[in-house]
Specification:
- The chain has 168 residues and is mostly beta strands.
- Helices cover 6% and strands 35% of the residues.
- It contains one helix and 13 strands.
- The longest helix is centred in the C-terminal third of the chain and has 10 residues, at 147-156.
- The two termini are 18 Å apart.
- The model has no long low-confidence stretch (mean pLDDT 98).
Amino acid sequence: MIFRAVSTGLFHAGDQAFPCAIGRGGFAPAAAKREGDGVSPIGVWPLRFLLYRPDRRSAPATALPIRAITPQDGWCDDPAHPDYNRLVQLPFSASHEVLWREDGLYDLVVVLGHNDDPPVAPLGSAIFLHLAKPDYAPTEGCIALSRPDLEAVLARAAPGDALQIGPD
C-alpha cells in the first residue's frame, strides 16, 4: 500500500483520511532537502520499521518490523559524521536526536527510507512518521499523526509499503 501525506495536512490510508502535521518549511523536492531546513521531502519513502517506547505502552499491532527503543538510542543528524542518518547509541559525540523523549512524540516512530540507501550528506536525516502534538504543530520535516490514527495506519501497514509525501 502507498500511504499519502499531502500539503493540506491530510494523510490518506486507502479510503481513510486523517489530519497530519507536516514540516514547518512545507514540502520541497528531495534533491533540495537540507539538514535542519524543516522541509518534508517530496517522494515515495519505504516504511522501514517501527520504533516504540515500551515503558509507555505495549507495541501496537503491525506487520512492520518492530524494535523497542531504550534511553540509549539516538539518531545521528551530523552530516560530517560517518553514521549520518543512522540509529546510534548514546552517549554519542556528534550531533544527534535523542529518541527517548519526554514529550511522547517518539513513543511511536516509523523510520522512513528517506536518504538512507546510502545516506548522502546533507540531504536530510531522521525523516520519520511519528506522533503529532495535540495542535498538529509543524514538525522539523517529519509527518505526524495522532496516536489513534497512527495505530490505525500501523495496523494496515506491511513490509513493502511506502509513504508518498507530496503536494495535493
